[in-house]
Amino acid sequence: MISRFRFGTALAVLSLSLCGFRALAQAVPDAPATTTPAAAAKPPFISFATSLRHKVVVAAYAGRPFRLSARLRADTASEGASIKLLASCFTARMQFSSVAVQDTAVTSPMWRTITLRGQLGRRDSLLMIFGQVLMNGTFGIDDVVLEVETKSHHWQAVPLSNGDFEQPLPTNAPADAAPPGWEPLNPVVGFRGRLVHESSGNTYYEVRGTEVTHYGHNRRAGHFQTVNGVRLYYETYGQGEPLLLLHGNGETIGSFTQQIGALAERYRVIAVDTRGHGQSKEDGRRLTYDLFADDMVALLDSLLLPAAHVVGWSDG
Questions:
Q1: Which is the most buried residue in 130, 133, 185, 257, by most CB within 10 A?
Q2: Is the pTM of this model over 0.70?
Q3: Separation of alpha carbons 292 and 310, rounded Å
Q4: Res 79: pLDDT
Q5: What structural domains does the chain harbor?
Q6: Cα–Cα distance list, 286 to 10, 60, 141, 273, 280 (Å)
Q7: Would you say 190 and 212 are in contact if contact means Cβ atoms under 8 Å apart?
């Protein structure tokens, strides 16, 4: 449950476990259960990003330099929207080895060919190719090519399954299914993909992001308030009784990405980057629970809120 606390000179904090609070947020508003836990559907995953993934066995090329290229485009519809290419290397035991990341994400609606380079470790067995999409807009990826350098310093193509996206979907697959040979890292709320067939005969994969929110970096919901000698950042969502969200040590508002939307259906959510975290500043004073509590009392006073529900985890 969420308890209501009244504020005076100190702040009473209710801490809930991460798992317990996730279950609470998903249950808002209250409703009788219609399925057993074993049969319950997996809750939707919420994020400001999604990825398309391709796994390539590279044990035969271990120790060699590689280069990965693809054509990318991004018709962006919100700040921070982009698409980029990544490649992660793993050993046979799935131990992470290294990652190669595109230096600058693509934000142009014109197709651009991107190439990144990396080095396979001597024990590397698997390379994962990622096309990563951030935020809102229409994004495209096509003609993914992986090559390794030979001892004679020539580039040798590594076979990819459907790197050009020309292979059609199975007849019984939904239109937004991942292309053959590829898989989504996580199905994410607000993102949908499809194969696009151009009049030229070319096929590429398109991802659309709509109504995607980057919690902790949302200008439409974000506010700064100077209280207790520092500038604190917070975001507000929804209407109703105020509910203060307090993240843990080293975290930010983004830690509540899975919960804010559900809670905002019932409460006026006030999610805060605590002093020295996220976009909030600090003034060199030692961080203590008493200092955090004083900050929250001052913030709520500045918002003319005499009382609020409080939910936090870890240091929150």
A1: 133
A2: yes
A3: 13
A4: 87
A5: 4-29+213-312 (3.40.50.1820), 49-209 (2.60.120)
A6: 18, 53, 48, 17, 15
A7: yes
Over residues 129-143, the mean pLDDT reads 97
Does residue 43 carry a pLDDT above 80? no
What residues pair up with 116 in beta bridges, in sequence order? 68
Measured at the CA of 297, the angle between CA 263 and CA 270, to 5 degrees, comes to 20
Q: 């651009």: which residue's tokens? A: 112
- Pick from 145, 136, 183, 184: which is nearest to 163 by CA? 145
Which residue type does 169 have?
Answer: L
Amino acid code (one letter) for 19 = C
pLDDT averaged over every residue in the chain? 87
| Integer Cα distance of 119 and 148 in angstroms | 9
Residue 71: Cβ-neighbour burial (10 angstroms; 0-12, 13-18, 19+): middle
DSSP 258: H
Angle value at C-alpha 172, between 171 and 176, nearest 5 degrees: 95
Looking up tokens 């951030």 gives: 134
Please state, in angstroms and rounded to a whole number, the distance separating the CA atoms of residues 316 and 299: 15
Out of 18-27, 165-174, 226-235, 279-288, pick the least confident: 18-27
Q: Compute the average pLDDT of residues 172-186.
A: 89
H or E element at residue 260: helix 257-264
